[in-house]
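Support request from a user on the community tier.

User writes: "When I paste my structure tokens into the form, the page sometimes reloads and wipes my input. The last time it worked, I copied everything first. Here is what I submitted, just in case something in the input itself triggers the reload:"
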């Protein structure tokens, strides 16, 4: 293993948090450290891993960066092997979440309909946007499951 690097912009509060924002790289005899870092930067997995660690604390607590990048790599290998099971599950979960958001926003629109028309209109606009995204997500899932023939 080479030196650990802390994700840019990360401000760890303690040792455990600092470790979770550290990306460990395995040494490769035929590549310099600079080459390994350049491959990480251009490969996209590390930068997306960093973004996921920055967006996740409110939902999933702190994600360990090295393990996250390895999981992203495994997920990519599954896609390369034409195994879209995880992608299908993610799209389905997103569509169902969007449907729930639609229902809640439509409910709020209805509650505001008689007295607060501005709020009702805002909630309804957001509800219809969530509904449209739900439909688009299911369309994407259908395309993944049944690719068009060319």
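"...and here is what came back when it finally went through:"
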């Amino acid at each position: 293993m080479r030196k650990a690097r802390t994700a840019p912009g990360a401000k760890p509060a303690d040792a455990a948090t600092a470790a979770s924002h550290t990306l460990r790289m395995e040494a490769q005899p035929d590549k310099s450290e600079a080459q390994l870092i350049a491959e990480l930067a251009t490969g996209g997995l590390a930068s997306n891993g960093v973004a996921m660690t920055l967006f996740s604390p409110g939902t999933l607590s702190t994600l360990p960066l090295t393990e996250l990048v390895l999981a992203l790599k495994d997920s990519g290998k599954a896609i390369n092997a034409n195994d879209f099971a995880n992608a299908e599950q993610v799209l389905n979960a997103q569509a169902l979440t969007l449907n729930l958001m639609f229902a809640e926003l439509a409910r709020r629109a209805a509650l505001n309909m008689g007295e607060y028309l501005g709020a009702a209109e805002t909630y309804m606009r957001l509800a219809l946007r969530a509904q449209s995204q739900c439909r688009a997500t299911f369309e994407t899932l259908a395309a993944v499951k049944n690719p068009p023939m060319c």
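Agent notes: The reload is a front-end session timeout and is unrelated to the input. The radius of gyration is 21 Å. The helical segments are 15-20, 33-43, 45-55, 57-60, 65-80, 85-112, 117-145. Escalated to web team.
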